[in-house]
Amino acid sequence: MPLAASFAKASSSFLFICIYLSLILYRIYCDRQLHKICYSLQVTFKTWFFDVFFLLVLLFFFFANLQFSRVIVSLWVVITPFFVMFTKMMIQRYSRSFAQAKIQVAVLGRHYEFNALEHEVLEIQGVELTYFSLEDNQDIEKTMLSMSPDYLLLNLETPATNQLIKELTHLDLKGIRLIVLHHFMESFLRKCYIPYDGEDLSYLEKVRSYSLKNYLLKRTIDWLAVFSISLCCFPIIIYTVTAVRRQSPGNVLFRQCRVGKSGENFVALKFRSMHEGAHFDPYTQKEDPRIFPFGSVMRKFRIDELPQLWNVMKGEMHLVGPRTEWNILVENYERGIPYYNERHIVRPGISGWAQVCYPYGTNLEDARQKLMYDLYYIKHWSVWLELETLLRTVVVVLSRKGL
């Protein structure tokens, strides 16, 4: 019986690996872009589903008369996908130093300057940028053919001339893959490029609210998460109420007008982390004197956000979505950032793709960068992106980086 059980689990594990590798190879063949499947939860969990189904069939038809420990089988089912993801991440982490080939990207122009965080993300993916200027290279076709990059990124400061379009067309016919800036950023950086001038009105067509099916899936995740988090964090909530009252007398809850879906205001709830009557400043500074000791702990571990679960239950927020912003700040952002209002086509969230991908911001450019991530999240929403955001949120909270 132990031998039969071992054979069943070994066969299922072997099938898991075969299906997983097959799906990866198929995705590479179709997309020819390794970065798209490097951290794919979808591939792992789809393989896990087929593998569990195969294990149950194997046990039912071939080993029905044998005794199996349900605890061991259940643990195997639960642990397997996480073990595979962990192993995959470790292999990727330690194989980067041995990898010789990088994704060579020739950048034509400097219309958009990639920041340090973007360079870091590209380096992790093995992407190497080489910049070229039209002024320095008159014969772009000859230069690109001699370099033979994987991609030619069009990052032009001015509209392309007829001569340049002709050369780019020749390069396309000769196998040089052309990629425009917004496509590059969505594929490699997982954010939507926002033009500074706002002249591209077609941008308004690119981002739409969730479909009815996606909305129902998202609300289901909201309710499951609210129930689970409330149950697990109930002792923390009770302790927080006591600690706030002890260290900073006054109201336990902090209420502030925030902008929600369709630009409508609502009252967001948080545990108060600053002394009442502290001087006004829309941004929190490092070691801010307005924050009392336990308030700092709440901010690091996001405990102050727990009352917003009530906003999620009321339907004013989602668990994951664009960050809730103060209505006064929103007015300033709308004046300085094109398409800022697009983030309000969906409800805001306690956590969000921008919060787990970009550090805390204190200026207009930071708000613009976060908006790029918010719009990517809305445009490319899926259950897998939702799960990835939640997993990243847990990592950020446990690492005490805040959101």
Q: Span from first to last CA?
A: 51 Å
Return the string of H and E elements. HHHEHEHEHEHHEEHHEEHEHHH
Question: What's the total count of β strands?
Answer: 9
Please give the largest β-sheet: 4 strands, parallel
Helicity, in percent? 40-55%
Explain the overall architecture.
It is a single chain. This protein has 403 residues and is α/β, with parallel strands linked by helices. It folds into three domains: 2-95, no CATH class; 103-189, Response regulator (Rossmann fold, 3-Layer(aba) Sandwich), CATH 3.40.50; 212-398, no CATH class. Helices cover 53% and strands 10% of the residues. The protein is built from 14 helices and nine strands. It has helices at 2-31, 41-62, 70-95, 116-124, 140-147, 162-173, 181-189, 212-247, 293-301, 308-313, 327-336, 353-357, 364-379, 383-398; strands at 103-108, 127-132, 151-154, 178-180, 253-259, 265-271, 318-320, 325-326, 349-351. The strands form three sheets. A four-stranded parallel sheet has the order 2-1-3-4. Strands 6-5-8 form a three-stranded antiparallel sheet. It has a two-stranded parallel ribbon with strand order 7-9. Strand 3 (151-154), helix 6 (162-173) and strand 4 form a beta-alpha-beta unit. Helix 1 packs antiparallel against helix 2 (41-62) and helix 8 (212-247) packs antiparallel against helix 9 (293-301). The longest helix has 36 residues, at 212-247. Mean pLDDT is 80; it is low at 24-39. This is UDP-N-acetylgalactosamine-undecaprenyl-phosphate N-acetylgalactosaminephosphotransferase. It comes from Marinomonas gallaica. Keywords: Membrane, Transferase, Transmembrane, Transmembrane helix. Its EC number is 2.7.8.40. Pfam families: Bac_transf (PF02397).
